Amino acid sequence: MHRLPTSAKSAFSRCTTVADHEQAADRGDTPSEGTHTRSEDPPDVEHELKQVQRTWRRRQLRRLVVVVGLLATVVYTATWLGFDLGYLWEHRGNLQSVLLEEMLVPSELLAEFQGDGPALGWAAIETLAIAAVGTAIGLPLAFCLGVLAAGNVTPRPVHGPLRLLLGTIRAVPSMVYALLFVILAGLGPVAGVLAIAMGTIGDLGRLFADEMEEIDPRPVEAVMSTGAGLLATTWAARRPQVTTAYVAWTLFYLELNARKSSVLGIVGAGGIGYPLIMAFNARNYTRVMAAILIILVLVVAVEAVATLLRDALDADRRAARD
């Protein structure tokens, strides 16, 4: 037999390899890379799975430690405060006797409403007036301070101190403001109005600032490109984006102020809180229950009206959008 030359063998081998690759391509198979290329080792799936499991166990252990720590802190704090379920259970009869024998007796409640109903009704009206006037006084200041305290409206030297001011105002409870304003204005609803106004400035101002910082900056940039100043830009580009949210927060805070003003009378700041605390000090629990029922009706009525106004506002906004 005649042996092929080396060059012929190499050419034949290359032709065979090319033919094999073309056949593999026709079959849809991935062609091999040749005998001189080492195939990559498959990933160690089992090792990766064990690593994921260990990470998951550590994460779950940390969460369990945090939950157990929080529960232990709550239990210790409750014990330090003297919270004892056994003591409360042993003395449950005291509350039952007051509720069933004095506060929830229909005939006595009816007699209380017939005798003191007009006085309690006027106190409820005064409570609503305190909430409304206090909100109306605090709202403009809350709007101005809230807009100026937004980081996308004013520079840091302006919005930083204003944020601190709003936080300081919010830190003082309305009851403390009522005590201070009783010294200034004396006993009566004026102190309650001022206390509600201060709370409105702090809380609504902070909410307004947060809402202003969430607006879309593109309309603002478009208006500023025309050379408009801060006031014109805020009115034309920023205000339309926050109007709905501002109205919703104002209505919500009006509901909250109605609840606050119902107890400000405890410190002499007017409203239905004053007859409530006087009845409690006199151990007249029937009158206490009558005042509580009137407060409940007042708060529910304010909430219902605020919900209707919000629904009407949403309907107008959807109609304008369509």
Structural summary, described in words:
With 322 residues, this protein is mainly alpha-helical. It has two domains: 53-83; 111-320, MetI-like (MetI-like fold, Orthogonal Bundle). It has twelve helices and no strands. The chain has helices at residues 6-27, 45-80, 85-90, 92-103, 106-148, 156-171, 174-185, 189-212, 217-224, 230-264, 273-281, 285-321. Helix 4 (92-103) crosses helix 12 (285-321) and helix 5 crosses helix 8 (189-212). The model is unreliable at 1-15 and 28-41 (pLDDT under 50).
CATH H-tier superfamily of the largest domain: MetI-like
Which CATH class of the largest domain is shown?
Mainly Alpha
**Structural class, from secondary structure content?**
mainly alpha
Helix content: over 70%
What name does CATH use for the topology of the largest domain? MetI-like fold
Write the layout of secondary structure elements.
Blueprint: H1 6-27, H2 45-80, H3 85-90, H4 92-103, H5 106-148, H6 156-171, H7 174-185, H8 189-212, H9 217-224, H10 230-264, H11 273-281, H12 285-321
Helix pairs in contact: 4-12, 5-8, 5-10, 5-12, 6-8, 7-8, 8-10, 9-10, 10-12, 11-12
Summarize the structure.
The chain is mostly helical and 322 residues long. 81% of the residues lie in helices and 0% in strands.
Keywords, please?
membrane; MetI-like fold; cell membrane; 12 helices; 322 residues; disordered N terminus; ABC-type phosphonate transporter activity; mainly alpha; extended
